[in-house]
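Me: I hope this is not a bother. Any chance you could explain this protein sequence and its structure tokens? It all follows right here:
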Amino acid sequence: MSQDAWDDGMYVIQVRYPDAVFSHKTALYLLNLAEREPAQYAVTLKAGTNTTGLMKNGVKVYKVKTELFDEGVIDVNSPSGHTVRPYNAERTICDLIRSRRNIEIQDLQTAVKEYVHLKEKNIPLLMRYAKSFSVEKIIRQYLEVLL
């Protein structure tokens, strides 16, 4: 990187680890569903992938079965304008519910509330993902309260 270039940590991760998909709080941030930038980037990789390099660089790594890995991958621009790959809002909500023991409840509630207010929300897609990730009952409870 040249001396006068802006450092785009997300883009650097995406280039170094092209199979990584930004997820959880990092995806929320990229989708404008978070109140603040995450202190630690989070990515998801296929189960069985070596994560040593990412973890040494302070990245939180989640793993998922290969058959579920590609569900909901989209392209968006990082805050610096580079194209990176996060999960879509529906997949991200499911990931947060699955990891709810490791996520602050306030962040989870804010994310679900922000999602419910989106014009582009896709509840049928959310429920399809929820079934695939075995969180259908919990998501249904959240939606009953918020919709």
